[in-house]
Amino acid sequence: MDGITATVARGARWALLANALLITANALGRKFLGMSWPSAFDLQWHFFAAVVLLTAAYAFQRDLHVRMDALSGRLGERGQSWLDLLGILLVLLPLCFAAVWTSYPAFAQSFVTGETRASREATSTLPAWIMKGLIPLGFGLLALQGAAEAVRCVASIAGVGARPDHRRRLLSE
Description:
mainly alpha
């Protein structure tokens, strides 16, 4: 799972470059040519959403997510594993499953009907299923990475595996 997460994140970073180039071209077109392209403006949001949704699993894998627990600094490696495991099982996975469960039907309907953004709130003709498909895909990747992290937590609790180095560094700080 780690390899898939890293590969998707490496691919998504190209969307950041594409978005920067698109924003630049759109701004220069408006400033110097007096032209605006609604589809290009809409595509900027698509690129941004793709990056956020497709790199969330990578951020979780690398422990770059925000931690809100006051106990983690006081817990040892095994205690931190328990805390992480409970957070994954009680918060992360249910949230991801709910997001996939509720967003997939809208994606499927949009894909089947050929809905475009112009048929909704925008003037662009981008297919709406692209954005709607990124939601279940992103949360699905996050759930799979959460399952991989849960396995690591169980291995650490059982004493058959160590927590990843980046987490061990957090415990020593």
